[in-house]
Amino acid sequence: MSGWRHAAAPSARGDPRRLPRILVVDDDPTVAEVVTGYLDRAGYVVDRADDGPTALTRAAAHWPDLVVLDLMLPGMDGLEVCRRMRGHGPVPVIMLTARGDEDDRILGLEVGADDYVTKPFSPRELVLRVESVLRRSRPAAAGHRLGAAGLTVDPQARRATKNGTELALTLREFDLLSYFLRHPGRAFSREDLMREVWGWDFGDLSTVTVHVRRLRGKVEDDPARPCLIQTVWGVGYRFDATGAAGEEAGS
Predict the structure, then answer these.
(1) pLDDT one-digit tens code per residue, 170-222
(2) Where are the alpha helices (DSSP H) in the chain?
(3) H or E element: which one contains 154?
(4) Could you give the CA distance from residue 91 to residue 208 in angstroms, rounded to a whole number?
(5) CATH code linked to domain 146-239
């Protein structure tokens, strides 16, 4: 779309005086109206779109701080909308999916969604999820750079590199890598990671599995035989700062 050339860069996110802008994309007018109303009352600036092309146009005009994106849209589905937005710049995405469609939820996570909420859902829960994702997407007030095995993470700039080359990480992938680098050699269960990285005490653990798989694809020399993020059978995952070949890959 030609409008992408004029899209505002997301440089204003660091301004604490600016209200966060949320783009709600759902073709169900009732759902969109309810979600917009709750987010508006929570203090956000809300844009709405009822299909993929309109969502991309809205994003080009005013780059959002977060997108609430329905997976099942007419024409261009939510997965394609997410791909195109992520191709233009980083933006947190919360997917809305139908209850029981586990394959669709996994697909949403695979293309980089940071969270998902299943329909029917509590609007209050969605607002809490939005607050959680936005809170973790803000640059850290202070924090030392982290590094090991050719990887470096700058928490304040939210920038990660491998051997000097910048990594294109989603919000959750960045947080997950940062957590591993802070705790090298320690094994964590998926429940541990969900609580410490996502900030949830409960949820679908496949979220963690998918994000570990995606992160491996970006930091490992051979994702099929991971040396850095190793599976600890019966426990979960461990970051090996030495990068030595260890236990067999798995999820």
Answers:
(1) 888 888 999 999 999 999 999 999 888 887 766 678 888 888 998 999 999 99
(2) 29-41, 52-61, 78-88, 102-110, 123-137, 171-182, 190-193, 206-219
(3) strand 151-154
(4) 19
(5) 1.10.10.10
